[in-house]
Amino acid sequence: MLAEYHGSEAVGQGPSPGQTVAGCRYGDAVTHEPPGTQPPRRFRPRLHWELLLCGVSGHELVGTDATALRGEDAILAREDAAGTRWYRCLRCDSWLPLSPPEHPLREHPPERDEIELPLRGKRLRDQIVLRLIAIDRAFHFLVLGALGALVLLFAANRSTLRPTFYKVIADLQGGVVSGQSHSRHGLLHELDNLFTTSSTHLHELGAVLLVYAAIEGIEAVGLWYQRRWAEYLTFLVTASLLPLEIYEIATRTTVLKVLAFVINVAVVIYLLFAKRLFGLRGGAAADAAEGDLDQGWEALERTAPPPAPAPTPVSTTDTS
Ligand SMILES: [Zn+2]
Questions:
Q1: How many CB atoms lie under 10 A from the CB of residue 261?
Q2: Domain boundaries in the chain?
Q3: Would you state the pLDDT for residue 229?
Q4: What is the 169 CA–ligand 1 centroid distance (Å)?
Q5: Tens digits of pLDDT across the chain (320 residues)
Q6: What pLDDT, on a 0 to 100 scale, did the predictor assign at position 294?
Q7: What is the DSSP letter of 276?
Q8: Which one, out of 23, 76, 142, 277, has a CA that is 20 to 30 A from the CA of 194?
Q9: Using DSSP, how many helices (H) and how many strands (E) does the chain show?
């Protein structure tokens, strides 16, 4: 059966499979800065993505339901001399003290191939940022899609809507129904334009809106699943619309337009430099290599604390 185990003892014992893998690399821990331990920067705030996600969905602990810990589990969990178990969050690298489970469900923590490691470091940051952009694009998809459908619907029913529209205008302005609105600007003027513009123009406008909505929808899906093509598509579409946005802001500045412009510039810069599109800063290979730095068992081994020193004998029976 299971021997009583103390993490420090097991780590200090003869070679075990886990130890040969883990032991020799633990020394590198000195240079590792777990998320949240760096001093804050004054002008460039540091976002600890791991901590953000752990704050929302909790830590990623493994083996909290295990009866005992083995030497090879020292990368995940250790037990100190007092019997307190320290579990390592596989995402944010925090070590958390917990009592051993009262009703364990398994003998040992799961094997490595049974554990799905959470994203960390650059991979995690990219997933969060790309999904935020995907949500933004999904919002565009909904708004543009609804607008396109409305325009086409309006074009199809314009003749039946027209008398009602001018009746409402006349009532609002207290004038006579003349068939022409007197507004020169504002919402009424825009609506009036819709009624006086040609059907072909309306159909074109509706089609353009729907095509644009579809592109935004494709971007949203691709970015959500972090596809490289979606990054290129988003970059090309967003960058090509920036001149139009500048023109729009110059013509009539609104807070919303400026905000959208700032977001889109940030997206373009992020995709170009952080995601290294078009081979920039080493391109896709460098992007993957940087992602590998913090991901996987090797990264966990590299950043684990060193094994505890060999335990002092606790046995009082052996006095010879
Ligand atoms: Zn955590």
A1: 16
A2: 7-34+46-118, 122-293
A3: 95
A4: 60
A5: 333 334 333 333 333 333 333 333 444 444 667 888 888 778 877 888 999 999 999 999 999 999 988 888 999 999 888 888 999 999 999 999 998 888 999 999 999 999 999 999 889 999 999 999 999 999 999 999 999 999 999 888 888 888 888 888 788 776 554 545 455 667 777 777 777 888 888 899 999 999 999 999 999 999 999 999 999 999 999 999 999 999 999 999 899 999 999 999 999 999 999 999 998 888 888 888 888 888 889 889 888 888 766 656 655 554 44
A6: 86
A7: -
A8: 142
A9: 10, 3
Give the angle subtended at the CA of 139 by the CAs of 134 and 145, to the nearest 5°. 120
149 CB-contact burial (10 Å; exposed 0-12 / middle 13-18 / buried 19+): middle
Ligand 1 centre from 35 Cα, in Å? 9
pLDDT of residue 83: 83
Ligand 1 mean position, distance from CA 87 (Å) = 10
Rounded to the nearest angstrom, the distance between the alpha carbon of 49 and the centre of ligand 1 is 10
Longest dimension (CA), the chain: 116
Phi and psi at residue 71, in whole multiples of 5°? -55, -45
Residue 320 CA, ligand 1 centroid: distance in Å: 47
Residue 133 has what pLDDT? 95
Nearest to 85 by CA among 101, 72, 98: 98
Q: Tell me the CA–centroid distance for residue 93 and ligand 1, in Å.
A: 6
Which is nearest to 272 in space by CA: 245, 236, 240, 243?
236
Distance from the alpha carbon of residue 264 to the mean position of ligand 1, in angstroms = 31
HEC assignment per residue over 97-110: EECCCCCCCECCCC
The DSSP bridge pattern shows strands 95-98 and 77-79 to be unpaired
Q: What is the distance in A from the centroid of ligand 1 to the CA of 92? A: 4
* 266 CA to centre of ligand 1 in angstroms: 28
Query: Checking DSSP bridges between strand 95-98 and strand 85-88, what pairing results, if any?
Result: antiparallel
55 Cα: distance to centroid of ligand 1 (angstroms)? 8
What are the C-alpha distances in Å from 315 to residues 156, 265, 311?
90, 67, 11
Q: Round the CA-based radius of gyration of the chain to a whole number and report it.
A: 31
